[in-house]
Amino acid sequence: MRLELREITKRFGDFTANDAIDLVVEPGTVHALLGENGAGKSTLMNVLFGLYDADGGEILLDGERRVFTGPGDAMAAGIGMVHQHFMLVPVFTVAENVMLGHEQVRGPAKLLDLDAARAKVTEISDRFGFHVDPDALVEDLSVGAQQRVEIIKALSRDAKVLILDEPTAVLTPQETDELLEIVGQLRDSGTAVVLITHKLREVQAIADTITVIRRGTVVGTAEPTATQEELASMMVGRDVSMTVDKDPADPGEPMLEISNLTVIDPATQLTVLDSVSLEVRRGEILAVAGVQGNGQTELAEAILGLAEITSGDVSLDGEPLAGRSIRENLDAGIGFVPEDRTEDGVVAAFTIANNLILDLYDREPYSKRGAIDPSAVADHADEQVERFDVRTTSSQALTGSLSGGNQQKVVLARELARDLKLLIASQPTRGLDVGSIEFVHKRIIEERDKGVAVIIVSSELDEVYALADRIAVMYHGRIVDIVSPDTDRDTMGLMMAGAHGDQEEAA
């Protein structure tokens, strides 16, 4: 099925997210969409999938104009979408998730026909080599397998155009390779695939055509033979360095020391951190690598005090952290970038300016004699908005009105505005474009070079390799090993999957 978008325009108030965008996706091709944060990529696809109503333009499928009033219309027309955050019910089986919303019934009693759903899952799984058990509970599946379930859902509804939104964000290198193979099979079967991603290596590996969107407008197309530097330059409108320029680390004394740290989740009584021991020295970056859900989140939260420590010791600059309040730990010199900016990083109903002083509001110059000084807050916000290139009409705009990537910039700007001893950054560039990633990486290196101890938690191996002085690999709540950035990607991927020798504690 041939997809054509003609002059698609979408506005949110005075802001134009899509400005008369034209796009043609041919059957049996992979069409990549590249662009900065807020460029309009996801908005365009949400219009196509019926989640947003367009303010102008038209959608054509095989030359026929179509109007979608919701995702149901889009799916009925042969369009499927796999969202970055999976839309699955964890306690349902694969077959139950696949039939959800499109239930088949049988017999006079109109009972759910789970056999038909199982057969559909098995047929699609066998056709593409997905190896998915239709009776498996989704909560027991790996992240990569859950993503295959999402693809099966779309294909079970006869999707001829499949939209993949940042599909490799939480996958291991091996799972990423498997997904790219699946995308290639879908292309060969005649499916048109629209791939939204910021990972230029993947675009070069699988795309047939690349469309670059900048500030709501198509600025050009490129062949997958284009270099990463050329693609990045098209995205941001200037030259971008694709490598992190840093001198070798010159570590000092240990700043953070962790010994036999164990955390048990009070809700499930599961051990989420199992006797973790490590240290981070002044002036070095320790990157924590691993597939999301293997204890990295709990490690970061336990250091700050967000997760209750069951046993073990954590100290910063020789002072114990356990038992102190989060505010006391922040005041001790910890900067913290949480992995979920929406839930833990910003207050959506606050202005950008107020979010930028959440941990500084009671200090001069922002507060005098117990009252906040609005002019000082505004000046600080304007400076940080410009410095971090936060895309907004005003620093007084509500933070909830920003794109996810721009919200992330607000969090980073706030945390890096203080004098730090330890910076903990979980997924620091998630959702950021290549230009912003370049800037954030430079700032992190600057913190290291000032003598700050830095912990980076990232599912992006490119980022881990670019920033790390040492790499701690986590699997099932334990440190598998601590290795150098010279470790090859295949070995790293095996360790992340728990398939590299015995798990061991390392310091």
From TrEMBL:
One of its GO terms (molecular function) is ATP hydrolysis activity. Keywords: ATP-binding, Cell membrane, Membrane, Nucleotide-binding, Repeat, Translocase, Transport. The keyword Repeat applies. It is found in: Cell membrane. InterPro entries: AAA+_ATPase (IPR003593), ABC_carbohydrate_import_ATPase (IPR050107), ABC_transporter-like_ATP-bd (IPR003439), ABC_transporter-like_CS (IPR017871), P-loop_NTPase (IPR027417). It comes from the Bacteria. It is a peripheral membrane protein. Residues 3-240, 256-501 form the ABC transporter domain. GO terms for cellular component: plasma membrane. Its main location: membrane. This is ABC transporter. It comes from Demequina activiva. It holds the Pfam family ABC_tran.
